[in-house]
Structure formats: structure tokens, C-alpha cells
């Protein structure tokens, strides 16, 4: 399974944009890039996913580098509720199983 | 729909005892996953079901662990002869696999403490 590398922690102030980076230099052509987050004392929750093109949804945007070796999760205006651990995960449905392989993620702190 | 539910939310047991956890997935979700999470780590995959068939088991799932999903609805995870190393959060997730990939919806977890 392809690996991802994320910073251990990041900080932001409320209402500022946050860019959470993820490196995945060994990504294969069929790997999807998924982001999940885990709020304190809760199970993980889905944020967004993409393959090649940038993606937007109501929670965040996902910017994928042209060579797909890195991606960035963008929270446009951080709120206190966005304080969580963010996981960048590669999934290869055609070849692998559908299990999620979590790393240690990036712990995001948001200050008022 | 109330989401994925897990019962109990907390369990304290003595070493050597057996414990059983239950997961109720989102209705009509055909896939159900079990993960385990220890402090400071991301969740680790244990096993998953498609309907009632158990399709994959992690090497983390020793002989003391067994999971079932009778009739393809709720699932149970049993740990026999618990050890202190089994102390962790046990997470259940469900999904509806219809296309090339799916979104997993997680429950709140069952926190197990083995004394």
C-alpha cells in the first residue's frame, strides 16, 4: 500500500484558511486520495476525496499536484470545530481492498 | 437515519475475561468494517464484511478475536481471554459500495480497558 507523509501538527487562527499538506510520492495511477478527520472522542469522518482533478465540497477543497505526488486539503475558514486530526489516505479500489490505512495524521489546533 | 451505533460505549474488564461488542451499521449499507485505535495512533484495520461474508482479516486479528455479521445486518466482535494489550478503542464503520470507491461512516467506538 502506498504511503503518505503528513506534518505531525499545525496551528491556525479561527476564520483563517488552513492548508494541510500530504506527500505521497509512491502513488500509483489508480490510487484515490482520501481525507478523513477525527474530532476529539469521536470516530473518523469523511472529508473529501479525489483522483486527479481538484475537488470541492461543502467541507473543504482538495488540491492535487499535477504529478499527483502531493495534495493539499484546504479549509477555507477554520472554525473551532475544525480542530481535529486529519488523515490523508490512499486507496486503490481496483487492486486493493477497501480498508482504510491510517497514518498518524496531522493534529490541527484552531485558536480563537 | 441515525448513523452507525456501537454498544457498549465503554467496557472495563479483567484480564482473562471475554467481551463482546456490537455494531449496528447504517441501514442498507452492504459493507461493515472493524478497526482498533490505541492512544496517539490512527485506527488500524481489523476485518471487514460484505453483507454476511467476512472478506478480509488483518494479521492483528489473533485467534482470540472473532467477528460475525449474521444476516448481513449488525455485527459483533468478540475477544476471548482478554489481555492488557487489547485495551483500545474499537471502531466500526459501514459503507455502501456501489461505484469504484466508497465512503466509510464511523460509529463513536467502544473503549475497552483491560485491568
Low-confidence segments of chain A, given as residue ranges, are: none
End-to-end CA span of chain B: 36 Å
Return the average pLDDT of chain A rounded to an integer: 92
Q: Which structural class fits the helix and strand makeup of chain A? A: mainly beta
Quick gist of this model?
Chain A is an all-beta fold and 112 residues long. Chain A has strands spanning 9-13, 18-23, 32-38, 45-50, 55-56, 61-64, 70-75, 84-91, 106-111.
Q: In words, what does this structure look like?
A:
The complex is a heterodimer of chains A (112) and B (115). Chain A has strands spanning 9-13, 18-23, 32-38, 45-50, 55-56, 61-64, 70-75, 84-91, 106-111. Chain A starts with 8 loop residues before the first strand and ends with a strand. In chain A, the strands form two sheets. In chain A, strands 1-9-8-3-4 form a five-stranded mixed sheet, with no helix packed on it. Chain A is mostly beta strands. Chain A contains no helices and nine strands. Helices cover 0% and strands 49% of the residues of chain B. In chain B, the strands form two sheets. In chain B, strands 2, 4, 5, 6, 9, 10 and 11 form a seven-stranded mixed sheet that branches. A four-stranded antiparallel sheet of chain B has the order 1-3-8-7, with no helix packed on it. Chain B has strands at 5-7, 10-13, 19-24, 31-37, 44-50, 53-57, 65-68, 75-79, 88-95, 105-106, 110-114. Chain B is globular, with a radius of gyration of 14 Å. Chain B has 115 residues and is mostly beta strands. The mean pLDDT of chain B is 93. Chains A and B meet through β3, β4 and β8 of A and β4, β5, β9 and β10 of B.
Main attributes?
heterodimer, A: 112 residues, mainly beta, five-stranded mixed β-sheet, four-stranded antiparallel β-sheet, 9 strands, globular, B: 115 residues, seven-stranded mixed β-sheet, 0% helix, 49% strand
Amino acid at each position: 500500500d502506498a504511503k503518505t507523509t503528513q506534518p505531525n501538527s499545525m496551528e491556525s487562527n479561527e476564520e483563517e484558511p488552513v492548508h494541510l499538506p500530504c506527500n505521497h510520492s509512491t502513488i500509483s495511477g489508480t490510487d484515490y486520495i482520501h481525507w478523513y478527520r477525527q474530532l476529539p472522542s469521536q470516530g473518523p469522518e469523511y472529508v473529501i476525496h479525489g483522483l486527479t482533478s481538484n475537488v470541492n465540497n461543502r467541507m473543504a477543497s482538495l488540491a492535487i499536484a499535477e504529478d499527483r505526488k502531493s495534495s493539499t486539503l484546504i479549509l477555507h475558514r477554520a472554525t473551532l470545530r475544525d480542530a481535529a486530526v486529519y488523515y490523508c489516505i490512499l486507496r486503490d479500489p481496483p487492486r486493493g481492498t477497501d480498508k482504510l490505512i491510517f497514518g498518524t495524521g496531522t493534529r490541527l489546533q484552531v485558536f480563537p | 437515519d441515525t448513523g452507525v451505533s456501537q454498544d457498549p460505549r465503554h467496557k472495563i474488564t479483567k484480564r482473562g475475561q471475554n467481551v463482546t461488542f456490537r455494531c449496528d451499521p447504517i441501514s442498507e449499507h452492504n459493507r461493515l468494517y472493524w478497526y482498533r485505535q490505541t492512544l496517539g495512533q490512527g485506527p488500524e484495520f481489523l476485518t471487514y464484511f460484505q453483507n454476511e461474508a467476512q472478506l478480509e482479516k488483518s494479521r492483528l486479528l489473533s485467534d482470540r478475536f472473532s467477528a460475525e455479521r449474521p444476516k448481513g445486518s449488525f455485527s459483533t466482535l468478540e475477544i476471548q481471554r482478554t489481555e492488557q494489550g487489547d485495551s483500545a478503542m474499537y471502531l466500526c464503520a459501514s459503507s455502501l459500495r456501489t461505484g469504484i470507491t466508497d465512503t466509510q461512516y464511523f460509529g463513536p467506538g467502544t473503549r475497552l480497558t483491560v485491568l
